[in-house]
Amino acid sequence: MSLKLSKKFIRVLERISHNKVANHILRMVRTNSIRKFDYNYISIGESNNLVTFTPSDKVEKIMSELPKVYSVREIRNLTHSNSNDVIFKALGYDKVLNPYWYPRPDCGCGENGDCGCDRASKGILLSETTSESSGNTYVLFKCVDTDRLSVVNKSVLVKEDNSKVIYSTNRNSIKVGRLVTHLLTETKLEFVAKDVEDFVNLYKASYDFTSNKDIQFEVVKGDMIAHWYKKNNYVGGGGQLNNSCMCEKGSEYFEIYSKNSRCSMVILYADNGKLRSNGTYHSDLIKGRAILWDIVYNGENIKFMDRVYTQNDSDIELFKSYAESKGWWFKTDQSMYPETPVTNGDLVIEDKFEVELDVIDMVNFPYMDTMCHWIRRDDKIYLTNDHKLGHTRFMRCTNGTFVAYKNGRETGYYTGSDEFGEWENEEEEVSEESNEVIEEIYEVVDDGYRDYLSMMADARSNRNGTGE
Q1: Contact at 8 Å (CB) between 393 and 423?
Q2: Stretch 293-300: mean pLDDT, rounded?
Q3: What is the pLDDT of residue 420?
């Protein structure tokens, strides 16, 4: 009998497959090279230094006592027609007492039922008979989950592997280092004590990874921001991440992020990554991202995590928990609205933020959810989520342009290479009149659509409302 490993144990090994010992074990199991070993059906233990197993000499006895379980590869069952009564009687099936039901085959979506379908019905066989008229053999199929009955053509039956119960039967524990030493000796792999020590340390780190999702996060800067904006670096699927309006733009669109020292990006690596020898985690794909700003607020240096984009909505909570653990501020609602309140997990504030830019010579600009207003003050350029400070640029376009403003009024769409008016180089005095104009615009519609300017810019740049 070949060596069996649980999916959980295999996943722990896959994350450290760069390690000599982990790679050897995975290769031996996948090629069925280990045919005899004292320990079998190996799985993770209750702590990071233990694994569980069932002794090989007990596995065969357990397997022999397990009921045979079947599924169907296609739907071929008898209906409750009176013409089938002879077969029903021979099988001991009462169509009056049993509502009509038939087992469904596996649609191929995987064991998690990802497509939302009913997974393959599994059952045991209670009786069997052969039709004298057709020569077909029929069985009385009993679903193991619901106890429902059906009369099924035997030719469509598929025997299922129900050996998973062994992972919870006659279990014993052993230290992972001791198990690996036995396994390497049995498979005649040359090794030294340091090989086992290195493997055990990595195994423990990989085991702990499952309960420490923070290790999947990383903060990146510079050109890596543009790299992780690209859609081909995302896990497949939908969500805000894959539907982002900026995910297929060139790197030149993101220079306002990559060239400025006060901007970073928080990324959440995909689950298919690996633990490096130094204990850090890495994947070629991500399943979430958010811009991170270094801001001076009330005289203190703080970090503000902008709108979060993820494939799965549940991962938004991971971002929020990670930000809270770091003492960062983040939006209470992951929306497109700049004025959304922010929190650090304890306090909720509606104050506005500003970040000073140290590089401004970019041509193209991204759509920006929150820090989307460009203002000049004391010969310095700032981004802010405050629309009352007399901004001259409004970053709400997806085609690389921005909306230019003078005295609170829109003047047109431009890129950084356009000469759209020397007045932008002058500090603008924000009059009460211009503020009143802005306020009137922002209060045109109800609270759900207050950002009227955002929607106007979105419409004119053919934006589909999916954000950064």
Answers
A1: no
A2: 93
A3: 52
- The answer to whether the CB of 366 falls within 8 A of the CB of 396 is no
Are the CB atoms for 353 and 382 separated by under 8 Å?
A: no
Output the pTM of the full model. Answer: 0.67
Residue 87 CB neighbour total at 10 angstroms = 20
* 78 within 8 A of 151, measured Cβ to Cβ: yes
Sheet of 373-377, strands arranged across = 354-357, 380-384, 373-377, 393-394, 402-406, 409-414
Crossing angle between the packed helical segments 452-460 and 432-442, to the nearest 10 degrees: 70
Q: Please give the Cα distance from 285 to 242 (Å, whole number).
A: 12
Q: Which residue has the higher pLDDT, 164 or 385?
A: 385
Strands (E), 123-215: 123-130, 137-143, 149-153, 157-159, 172-175
- The tokens for 239 are 């969500």
Q: How far apart are the first and last CA of the chain?
A: 53
Query: How many angstroms separate the CA atoms of 53 and 441, rounded?
Result: 68
Write phi, then psi, for 84 (nearest 5 degrees): -100, 5
Q: Which residues have CB under 8 Å from 361's CB, separation 6+?
A: 416
- Other C-beta atoms closer than 10 Å to the C-beta of 333 total 10
Q: What is the mean pLDDT of residues 144-155?
A: 94
**Tell me, what's the pLDDT at 466?**
54
Closest-CA residue to 29 (of 59, 4, 57, 11): 4
Indicate the burial class of 252 (C-beta count within 10 angstroms; 0-12, 13-18, 19 or more).
middle
Question: Mean pLDDT over residues 382-411, rounded?
Answer: 92
Give the tens place of pLDDT for each residue, 209-231.
877 888 999 999 999 999 999 99
Per-residue b or e along 26-55, where b marks 16 or more CB atoms closer than 10 Å to that residue's CB: bebbeeeebeebebbbbbbbeebeebbbbe
Where helices occur in 230-380 by DSSP H, the ranges are 239-242, 255-258, 314-326
The whole-chain average pLDDT of the chain stands at: 86
Strand partners for 404? 393, 412
The pair phi, psi for residue 160, each rounded to 5°, is: -100, 155
Q: Is the dihedral of CA 90, 92, 95, 96 positive or negative?
A: positive
Using one digit for the tens of pLDDT, what is the confidence trace for 76-89? 999 999 999 999 99
Which of 84, 82, 81, 122 minimizes the C-alpha distance to 104? 122
CA 105/CA 118 separation, integer angstroms: 9
**153 forms bridges with which residues in the sheet?**
138
